[in-house]
C-alpha cells in the first residue's frame, strides 16, 4: 500500500465512525469486545488519539493525556481528537524520524499505519453492536494481517509468555502468506507458506484480518491440520493485542 492510503483511511474511517455512532445508544454492548459498550470504545479511541498526538509532538510517550471529554460529549470529543491527530500526522512526512513503540520502525509512517488499523478494527466493533459491518478493502486487510503478525505477535507488547510446544502455523490471506513459528517466549514471522506447518489458516484477506484480531470466529476461516496449533496462534495474539 502507498503510505498516503493509511492517512486517507484514518480520516475516512474516523468520519464514518463519528457519523455512525451519533444519535445511537452509546450504552449498546459490543459483542466483539465482551464487557465493553460503544461509548467505551469511543472513549478508548479518543484517548489513544490524544496519547499518540502527545507522543508525536513530544517524541516520547507522554505520562498523562486526556482520556475523557470534559463536557460529556463522547462523539464530539472522539471526532475532535481524530481530526487533530490526522492534521498532525498529515503535516509530517512518513519517513520523518519519530519515536514509536516498535523497535523496527521509528518513523511517522509507523503511526500512519498503526492508527489506520486501530480505527478500522474498532469501527468493526461499533458496527457489530448495531448490525452488519461495512466493507473493508482487501489490500488494506492483507496489510493489517501483516501488521498484527509482524508487529504485535513478534514484539509481544507486555512480554507475554505462553505454554506449550513449538508450533508452526501458516497463514494465507488470498495471495498473501506468512510462516509463524510460536515458541513459549517468542515468535518469528516470515513471508512464506511453510511446507512443514502444524496447521494452515486460510481465508480471504478480510476474514483472516478480522480472525487474527479476534473479531471473527473460527468458522470465518478454514483451518487445515492441527486445530490446536491454530488456536494457540489466536490465543497468543489475544494476549499480544490486549
Return the average pLDDT rounded to an integer: 95
In percent, how helical is the residue content?
40-55%
**Number of beta-strand segments:** 5
Distance between the termini: 26 Å
Describe the oligomeric state of these chains in a short phrase.
single chain
Tell me what portion of residues adopts beta-strand conformation. 5-15%
Contiguous runs where pLDDT drops below 50 for at least 5 residues: none
Shape: globular
Throw out a few tags for this protein.
242 residues, alpha+beta, globular
Fold topology:
Elements: H1 3-21, H2 38-58, H3 74-90, H4 108-130, H5 138-155, E1 167-173, E2 176-183, E3 186-190, E4 199-203, H6 205-212, E5 222-225, H7 227-240
Parallel strand pairs: 1-4
Antiparallel strand pairs: 1-2, 2-3, 4-5
Helix pairs in contact: 1-3, 1-4, 2-3, 2-4, 5-6
Report on this model:
The chain has 242 residues and is an alpha+beta fold. 50% of the residues lie in helices and 12% in strands. It contains seven helices and five strands, in the order H-H-H-H-H-E-E-E-E-H-E-H. The chain has helices spanning 3-21, 38-58, 74-90, 108-130, 138-155, 205-212, 227-240; strands spanning 167-173, 176-183, 186-190, 199-203, 222-225. Strands 3-2-1-4-5 form a five-stranded mixed sheet, covered by helices on one side. The longest helix has 23 residues, at 108-130.
Amino acid at each position: 500500500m502507498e503510505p498516503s492510503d493509511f492517512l486517507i483511511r484514518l480520516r475516512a474511517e474516523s468520519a464514518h465512525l463519528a457519523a455512525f455512532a451519533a444519535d445511537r445508544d452509546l450504552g449498546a454492548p459490543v459483542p466483539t469486545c465482551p464487557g465493553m459498550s460503544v461509548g467505551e470504545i469511543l472513549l478508548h479511541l479518543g484517548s489513544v488519539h490524544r496519547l499518540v498526538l502527545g507522543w508525536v509532538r513530544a517524541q516520547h510517550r507522554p505520562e498523562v493525556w486526556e482520556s475523557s471529554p470534559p463536557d460529556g460529549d463522547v462523539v464530539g470529543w472522539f471526532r475532535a481528537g481524530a481530526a487533530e491527530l490526522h492534521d498532525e500526522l498529515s503535516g509530517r512526512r512518513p519517513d520523518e524520524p519519530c519515536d514509536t513503540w516498535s523497535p523496527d520502525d521509528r518513523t511517522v509512517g509507523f503511526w500512519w499505519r498503526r492508527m489506520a488499523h486501530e480505527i478500522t478494527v474498532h469501527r468493526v466493533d461499533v458496527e457489530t453492536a448495531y448490525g452488519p459491518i461495512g466493507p473493508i478493502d482487501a489490500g488494506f486487510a492483507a496489510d493489517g494481517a501483516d501488521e498484527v503478525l509482524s508487529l504485535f505477535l513478534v514484539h509481544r507488547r507486555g512480554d507475554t509468555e505462553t505454554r506449550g510446544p513449538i508450533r508452526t502455523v501458516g497463514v494465507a490471506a488470498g495471495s498473501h502468506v506468512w510462516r509463524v513459528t510460536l515458541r513459549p517466549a517468542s515468535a518469528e514471522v516470515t513471508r512464506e507458506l511453510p511446507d512443514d506447518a502444524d496447521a494452515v489458516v486460510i481465508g480471504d484477506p478480510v476474514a483472516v484480518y478480522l480472525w487474527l484480531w479476534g473479531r471473527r470466529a473460527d468458522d470465518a476461516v478454514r483451518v487445515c491440520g492441527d486445530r490446536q496449533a491454530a488456536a494457540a496462534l489466536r490465543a497468543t495474539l489475544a494476549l499480544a493485542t490486549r
